[in-house]
Write a structure and sequence with these properties.
about 170 residues, alpha/beta, six-stranded parallel sheet, 6 strands
Length: about 170
């Protein structure tokens, strides 16, 4: 079984509080990747509470975003329509729960052949989750499709792709 992990394709990261032109630009490619993927597709959702600004992340990035239940927290409608399973809500950049879920699937269900990550932001949540997945499943190929990712800046996107490549994560379309 192959997995596609769609990381944080939420309104606040696309065209909301922390949106970028690069994030808007990848939405059609992300939609196409999901529609054409042969395997299981899981979404993650950055999830904060109303006290976000008092958290360490909030103090370091004082832009309220992805507060649970708000429009900004929602997955972009064009992608939400393709979601078939409950999203993995994550209060931090990387999700231990996602790593555990994938490890359990690989151990108790069906061996995972590969895991591909796409989404936002390459340099924060995509890299964090790719590294966590690599730690939980070191023998499973982890792939990042660069054409379906965007970073905070184009430079930080490229830096993250290079860093992941050094950590034996395969980068496609870079």
């Amino acid at each position: 079984m192959n997995f596609l992990i769609v990381v944080d394709m939420q309104n606040d990261f696309i065209d909301g509080a922390l949106g970028t032109a690069e994030a808007v630009a990848i939405v059609p490619a992300v939609k196409s990747k999901i529609e054409n993927f042969e395997g299981r597709v899981l979404f993650t959702r950055d999830t904060h509470e109303t006290d976000y600004l008092t958290t360490q992340e909030g103090r370091n990035l004082p832009v309220e975003h992805c507060v649970k239940g708000t429009d900004g927290w929602q997955i972009a409608p064009v992608l939400e329509a393709l979601r078939r399973e409950e999203a993995v809500d994550k209060p931090t950049f990387g999700s231990i729960a996602l790593g555990q879920l994938l490890k359990a699937y690989d151990t108790y269900e069906e061996k995972i052949e590969s895991i591909t990550l796409i989404g936002l932001c390459t340099d924060i949540c995509v890299i964090s989750n790719a590294m966590i997945i690599k730690a939980f499943l070191p023998e499973v190929p982890v792939i990042v499709d660069a054409a379906c990712c965007a970073g905070v800046t184009p430079e930080s996107h490229e830096n993250a792709l290079k860093a992941m490549s050094v950590c034996q994560i395969k980068i496609e379309n870079f």
